[in-house]
Design goal:
With 333 residues, the chain is an alpha/beta fold. β7, α8 and β8 form a beta-alpha-beta unit. It binds N,N,N-trimethyl-histidine.
Length: 333
């Protein structure tokens, strides 16, 4: 490809394109490009995990959730089924239910059936995942008002004014909060506390600390689905930003860091080489990693302290017999 052609191609792929003499800008694509270029320029190369979830990544994540080794989804679903009435009572019938990172929304369908919220507002970074989930939900609950929002929960969101004076309850299942550092998680809880107001509440699913071997297996499954999920991030950069990553030159590496209390996922270069993204070039040493995800694990005590510091009263805890996963019921303090 000539230099000229490549420049034009990277311009189109960077989130801007020219159609009929007008410039069209896709802000999500612009942000993706900016975050990737910034992340790969750091001494410890890093990519934000929110970019895992394009259509292919969302499918791979759904496969992860069904893996024998990946206990969180199954465990949280079990807790939710077992305590459905109690969870609904805690949220209060007729509440406005705002869900972050709704994804497939299997647990939500169960909760909605019993809770009967006045309005359901799912927020997800993946429009594809959101569309699928909303379609199923609308079919099952034809009278339920649904306001779906494509957004990234790391930035404050203005809650749509559709809820009247219904109590606002934020539902944040799936241990998605684990992707945030502890300080970010506290800031997120504080922001949510501000959103729900003095009568509001929050239901949040949190993966709990446990035997490191159980954690290790969950992020190093035998079928390699987690590896494919991790590597898809590079393939996505190739597809959407015109990168030339050779995914075979990277290996999936995940481990539990007990000091930090988190699983870390990395993509490790198998050999020294360079990668181009548009006009940018990034070189890798043999064994150099891109840090792609943190998944923080909490003790019950740690999470309750975090919630209390954010202005919530930790009022309820639903958990499984092994205490592997916790669903915390938080009330505005
Ligand atoms: C969606 C963030 C909860 O941390 O377990 C699964 C993502 N990464 N396997 C997690 C994930 C690798 C997942 N969360």
């Amino acid at each position: 490809m000539g230099g000229d052609q490549r420049d034009r191609r990277s311009e189109q792929l960077g989130g801007h394109r020219f159609v009929g003499g007008a410039q069209f800008t896709d802000l999500a694509a612009v942000n993706f490009r900016k975050d990737v270029l910034e992340g790969l320029a750091r001494p410890q190369k890093a990519l934000p995990p929110k970019y895992f979830y394009d259509a292919a990544g969302s499918k791979l994540f759904e496969r992860i959730c069904r893996l024998r080794e990946y206990y969180p989804t199954r465990t949280e679903l079990g807790i939710t089924k077992r305590h459905l009435r109690d969870l609904a009572r805690f949220a209060g019938p007729g509440c406005a239910l705002l869900e972050y990172g709704s994804g497939e929304s299997l647990k939500t369908r169960l909760l909605v059936r019993v809770l009967r919220p006045s309005v359901y507002m799912p927020v997800d970074i993946s429009t594809d995942a959101l569309r699928g989930a909303v379609k199923r939900l609308a079919r099952e609950f034809p009278k339920l008002g649904i306001v779906a929002i494509t957004a990234d929960f790391s930035h404050p969101l203005t809650v749509p004014a559709y809820r009247g004076d219904a109590r606002l309850v934020v539902y944040f299942p799936g241990s998605t909060i684990g992707n945030l550092r502890r300080d970010e998680a506290q800031a997120f809880l504080k922001m949510t506390r501000g959103q729900v107001g003095p009568r509001g509440a929050m239901l949040v699913g949190v993966d709990l600390k446990k035997d490191a071997n159980v954690l290790h297996a969950a992020y190093n499954d035998a079928k390699g689905v987690t590896a494919d999920f991790n590597l898809n991030l590079l393939a996505r950069i190739n597809r959407e930003l015109g990168g030339d990553f050779d995914v075979r030159r990277f290996g999936h590496y995940a481990f539990y860091n007990p000091m930090a209390g988190r699983i870390e996922m990395h993509l490790v270069a198998r050999e020294a080489h360079a990668v181009n993204i548009g006009n940018y070039r990034f070189s890798f040493h043999r064994g150099e990693s891109i840090h792609t995800e943190n998944s923080y694990k909490y003790s019950v005590q740690e999470f309750e302290t975090l919630a209390a510091n954010a202005g919530f009263k930790p009022a309820k805890l639903w958990t499984d017999a092994r205490r592997w996963f916790g669903v915390f019921g938080l009330l505005a303090a």
